[in-house]
Amino acid sequence: MKIESDQARILSGVMAGQTTGAPIALLIENKDYAKWRERDIDPMTTPRPGHADLTGAVKYGYRDLRLSLERASARETAARVAVGAVCKALLAQFGVQVGSYVTMIGGVEADRDRLEALTYARCFELAESNDLRCPDLAIVEDMRARVWECMQAKDTVGGVFEVVALGLPPGLGSHVHFDRRLSGRLIGALASIHAIKGVELGRAFENATKFGTEVHDEIFVEGERERREKTEDGTEEDEGSGIGRLIRRTNRAGGLEGGITTGEPLVLRAAMKPISTTLNPLRSVDLATGQPDRTTYERSDFNAVPRAGVVGEAMVAYVLADALLEKLGGDSLAEMRSRFAALRQARLEDLPMDNEPWRFGFDQGESGTD
Questions:
Q1: Which of 167, 192, 208, 268 could lock onto 96 through a cystine, CB 3.0 to 4.6 A?
Q2: 293: Cβ–Cβ under 8 A, 6 or more apart, which residues?
Q3: Which pTM does this prediction carry?
Q4: Residue 324 maps to a domain
Q5: Number of other residues whose CB lies within 10 A of the CB of residue 359
Q6: Tens of pLDDT, residues 214-255
Q7: Do the domain assignments include residue 62?
Q8: Number of domains within the chain
Q9: Which residues constitute the domain of residue 308?
Q10: CA 51 to chain centre
Q11: pLDDT tens across 47-84, in order?
Q12: Tell me, what CATH number does 318's domain have?
């Protein structure tokens, strides 16, 4: 909102621009609170469809719906963005970049071919060049016209944004337990953002319409032809030449397989519903009287998709930073860097196979039974 000018203050955990190892405490002051301290607040008893007003009252027994309204406010995401900035700073130490951009607002969609002609890094740059955060500059004015149409109608619009992480190593996350799968953690993190009603990893919904052979990202050895030529003429391979690295020529999976990063760009897409607070009142029921009623307008926006993308960046960065710490451990950046450099990569030399027959059976004498 234009009336808000948030600034996070660091209260602890940082000295001379570096973390100390102590908890990092951040404060974002609610400046608007001072205007309401000495004012009577009218009771709120008519729940607004699409909000947590009614469901919050059912769950917690509130006798005034404003208690649901305020606690469920998307203003809470300001703190997430602040924490996300810390997480992005940590990820950047290991060459990981997280960015976002808008691909659709109110049914006006960016051209997929034009987007795919750009690198992800370029999409990040172009998104910052306009207020709608759309990298397809040819469609921005149409999007803006759609938002203006919505404002004139006293309504709201939703849309879609993408969050992409570049430079991730393979091997973050796990397939062994449901709660350690990075796919579930990332999708859950994005779905936790207010008004987000759908999340997909890669081209999930499009992939669901195809045959498996059209979807799965095939695996190749980088420089396979060069390696074969060197072997034939007796020339030894250069260490670190990259030959032997396993690569994908497509990334329909969105950078994850089995809940684990593949090393390809991590691509997530989130759908945001139109904001629930509308200038045009909606039909509801006054819980104090039991009579039909119309909702009253609370301060809100017409379109929040561009800012939701920034919140999405923060949530993805938070999950990825957690996964990186889980993988590397360590009490300092120096320790983490040395462990990061030693990570197993998706290359033949890091993946020796026994290549011998074996069986699942065990000796009866070792089973613990007679």
A1: 167
A2: 46, 283, 284, 285, 286
A3: 0.90
A4: yes
A5: 5
A6: 999 999 998 765 555 555 555 555 544 556 899 999 999 999
A7: no
A8: 1
A9: 73-217+252-351
A10: 22
A11: 999 999 999 999 999 999 999 988 898 889 999 999 99
A12: 3.60.150.10
